[in-house]
Amino acid sequence: MKILDLFGKKDASSELSKTLPYRIMTEFSPYRLYANRKSSVLLMLKLKNLTTEPVLGSVVIELPKALSLDSTGLSAAKELRLGTIAPGEERESKVEIHGDAGTDKGEYTLSITAFIHYRDYGHVLNAVKKKTVLEVS
Asked: What sign has the CA pseudo-torsion 112, 70, 96, 116?
Protein backbone atom coordinates (compact mmCIF):
# COMPACT_ATOMS: atom_id res chain seq x y z
CA MET A 1 0.00 0.00 0.00
CA LYS A 2 3.02 2.29 0.12
CA ILE A 3 2.81 2.84 -3.63
CA LEU A 4 -0.71 4.23 -3.22
CA ASP A 5 0.56 6.65 -0.59
CA LEU A 6 3.19 7.84 -3.05
CA PHE A 7 0.53 8.95 -5.53
CA GLY A 8 -1.76 10.47 -2.90
CA LYS A 9 -4.32 7.67 -3.01
CA LYS A 10 -5.54 6.05 0.15
CA ASP A 11 -6.93 2.58 0.65
CA ALA A 12 -10.51 3.07 1.86
CA SER A 13 -11.51 -0.60 1.66
CA SER A 14 -10.37 -1.46 5.20
CA GLU A 15 -12.31 1.50 6.61
CA LEU A 16 -15.45 0.65 4.63
CA SER A 17 -15.45 -3.00 5.67
CA LYS A 18 -15.25 -2.25 9.42
CA THR A 19 -18.09 0.25 9.86
CA LEU A 20 -21.84 0.00 9.34
CA PRO A 21 -22.18 1.33 5.79
CA TYR A 22 -25.90 1.99 5.43
CA ARG A 23 -29.08 2.81 7.28
CA ILE A 24 -32.05 1.04 5.69
CA MET A 25 -35.56 2.42 6.24
CA THR A 26 -38.70 0.75 4.89
CA GLU A 27 -42.35 1.74 4.66
CA PHE A 28 -45.38 0.10 3.05
CA SER A 29 -48.22 1.95 1.34
CA PRO A 30 -50.90 0.77 2.11
CA TYR A 31 -49.71 -0.88 5.30
CA ARG A 32 -51.10 -4.34 4.56
CA LEU A 33 -51.87 -6.64 1.68
CA TYR A 34 -55.29 -8.27 1.13
CA ALA A 35 -55.41 -12.05 1.54
CA ASN A 36 -56.62 -14.51 -1.10
CA ARG A 37 -57.03 -12.02 -3.94
CA LYS A 38 -54.91 -10.02 -6.34
CA SER A 39 -53.61 -6.93 -4.55
CA SER A 40 -50.37 -5.02 -4.21
CA VAL A 41 -48.49 -2.73 -1.85
CA LEU A 42 -45.68 -0.29 -2.54
CA LEU A 43 -42.45 -0.83 -0.59
CA MET A 44 -40.66 2.49 -0.16
CA LEU A 45 -37.02 1.81 0.57
CA LYS A 46 -34.63 4.53 1.79
CA LEU A 47 -30.91 3.87 1.95
CA LYS A 48 -28.50 6.33 3.59
CA ASN A 49 -24.71 6.17 3.17
CA LEU A 50 -23.18 6.39 6.67
CA THR A 51 -19.56 6.21 5.51
CA THR A 52 -17.16 9.07 4.82
CA GLU A 53 -16.44 7.88 1.26
CA PRO A 54 -18.58 7.73 -1.89
CA VAL A 55 -19.62 4.11 -2.47
CA LEU A 56 -21.06 2.02 -5.29
CA GLY A 57 -24.27 0.53 -3.92
CA SER A 58 -26.94 -2.01 -4.69
CA VAL A 59 -29.90 -3.57 -2.89
CA VAL A 60 -31.32 -7.10 -3.17
CA ILE A 61 -34.93 -7.72 -2.10
CA GLU A 62 -36.02 -11.31 -1.45
CA LEU A 63 -39.63 -12.32 -0.85
CA PRO A 64 -41.25 -15.49 0.52
CA LYS A 65 -42.91 -17.90 -1.90
CA ALA A 66 -46.47 -16.54 -1.47
CA LEU A 67 -45.49 -13.00 -2.57
CA SER A 68 -44.09 -11.71 -5.85
CA LEU A 69 -42.46 -8.65 -7.38
CA ASP A 70 -44.62 -8.83 -10.51
CA SER A 71 -48.31 -9.46 -11.15
CA THR A 72 -47.66 -12.86 -12.75
CA GLY A 73 -46.25 -14.28 -9.50
CA LEU A 74 -42.95 -15.48 -10.98
CA SER A 75 -40.36 -13.07 -9.54
CA ALA A 76 -39.35 -13.49 -5.88
CA ALA A 77 -36.05 -11.54 -5.87
CA LYS A 78 -34.85 -8.28 -7.36
CA GLU A 79 -31.56 -6.38 -7.46
CA LEU A 80 -31.60 -2.59 -7.59
CA ARG A 81 -28.32 -1.01 -8.70
CA LEU A 82 -28.14 2.44 -7.13
CA GLY A 83 -24.86 3.72 -8.59
CA THR A 84 -22.41 5.90 -6.67
CA ILE A 85 -23.80 7.23 -3.39
CA ALA A 86 -22.07 10.25 -1.82
CA PRO A 87 -21.30 10.40 1.94
CA GLY A 88 -24.49 11.22 3.85
CA GLU A 89 -26.63 10.93 0.71
CA GLU A 90 -29.98 9.16 0.88
CA ARG A 91 -31.43 7.22 -2.06
CA GLU A 92 -35.07 6.24 -2.31
CA SER A 93 -36.48 3.37 -4.38
CA LYS A 94 -40.01 2.07 -4.75
CA VAL A 95 -40.85 -1.58 -5.37
CA GLU A 96 -44.32 -3.02 -5.91
CA ILE A 97 -45.10 -6.27 -4.05
CA HIS A 98 -47.99 -8.43 -5.25
CA GLY A 99 -50.18 -11.05 -3.66
CA ASP A 100 -52.57 -13.43 -5.41
CA ALA A 101 -55.33 -15.94 -4.65
CA GLY A 102 -52.82 -18.22 -2.91
CA THR A 103 -51.63 -15.59 -0.42
CA ASP A 104 -53.05 -16.53 2.98
CA LYS A 105 -53.50 -14.33 6.06
CA GLY A 106 -50.45 -13.86 8.24
CA GLU A 107 -47.14 -12.09 8.50
CA TYR A 108 -44.54 -12.50 5.76
CA THR A 109 -40.86 -11.69 6.29
CA LEU A 110 -39.01 -9.83 3.52
CA SER A 111 -35.21 -9.85 3.39
CA ILE A 112 -33.42 -6.69 2.24
CA THR A 113 -29.64 -6.74 1.73
CA ALA A 114 -27.67 -3.58 0.86
CA PHE A 115 -24.18 -4.00 -0.59
CA ILE A 116 -21.11 -1.78 -0.97
CA HIS A 117 -19.20 -2.76 -4.10
CA TYR A 118 -15.59 -2.31 -5.12
CA ARG A 119 -14.84 -1.29 -8.73
CA ASP A 120 -17.93 -2.96 -10.20
CA TYR A 121 -21.03 -4.83 -9.07
CA GLY A 122 -19.14 -8.15 -9.10
CA HIS A 123 -16.95 -7.34 -6.07
CA VAL A 124 -18.49 -6.84 -2.60
CA LEU A 125 -16.78 -4.95 0.26
CA ASN A 126 -19.52 -4.93 2.88
CA ALA A 127 -23.21 -5.69 3.30
CA VAL A 128 -26.07 -4.90 5.67
CA LYS A 129 -29.15 -7.12 6.05
CA LYS A 130 -32.57 -6.09 7.27
CA LYS A 131 -35.70 -8.15 7.68
CA THR A 132 -39.08 -6.46 7.59
CA VAL A 133 -42.57 -7.88 8.07
CA LEU A 134 -45.52 -7.39 5.72
CA GLU A 135 -48.94 -8.12 7.19
CA VAL A 136 -51.55 -9.84 5.03
CA SER A 137 -55.17 -9.72 6.22
From this structure: positive
Dihedral in degrees, nearest 10, Cα atoms 123, 3, 84, 118: 10
Total of domains in the chain: 1
What CATH number corresponds to the domain at position 66?
A: 2.60.40.10
**Element housing 85 (H / E):** strand 77-85
C-alpha 133/C-alpha 137 separation (Å) is: 13
Phi-psi region of 90 (alpha: psi -120 to 50; beta: other; left: phi over 0): beta
Cβ atoms within 10 A of the Cβ of 45, count? 20
pLDDT (tens digit, 9 = 90+) per residue, 85-102? 999 999 999 999 999 999
Q: Kindly state whether residue 110 falls inside one of the protein's structural domains.
A: yes
Look up the pTM and report it.
0.84
Any idea what the Cα angle at residue 53 is, between residues 83 and 9, rounded to 5°? 110
